[in-house]
Design a protein that fits this description.
By secondary structure, the chain is an alpha+beta fold. A four-stranded antiparallel β-sheet has the order 1-2-3-4. This is YneQ.
């Protein structure tokens, strides 16, 4: 279940993906499959090769991309890897808000 996200944030994420950018969207999230996770960061791009190359920098495998028919394919980042990547990408406000 996703929460803590506004429609304008989702629209901005989709617009960045549509422009071919690497786009980040972090929100609170609960899923029984991941009991320790309280948030998720979706990192997307319409260019799957560009997204895979970005992910390889952080040891993310191409096959972990959630390929979507609507064009908003993305990696889902959780836990320690989420924190590590957000910090390295300079997204400290998201670390502070979602990963206390």
């Amino acid at each position: 279940m996703a929460f803590g996200i506004h429609r304008n944030q989702l629209k901005a994420w989709k617009a960045a993906i549509d422009r071919g950018e690497i786009a980040f969207l972090t929100h609170f999230w609960l899923d029984d499959r991941f009991p320790g996770a309280k948030s998720v960061t979706k990192v997307g791009c319409k260019d799957l090769e560009k997204l895979a190359a970005w992910g390889a920098r952080y040891q993310l495998k191409k096959e972990w991309i959630h390929v979507r028919k609507d064009g908003y394919s993305h990696f889902d980042l959780l836990g320690r890897k989420q924190r590590e990547i957000l910090q390295k990408e300079g997204r400290l406000a998201e670390v502070k808000k979602f990963l206390k």
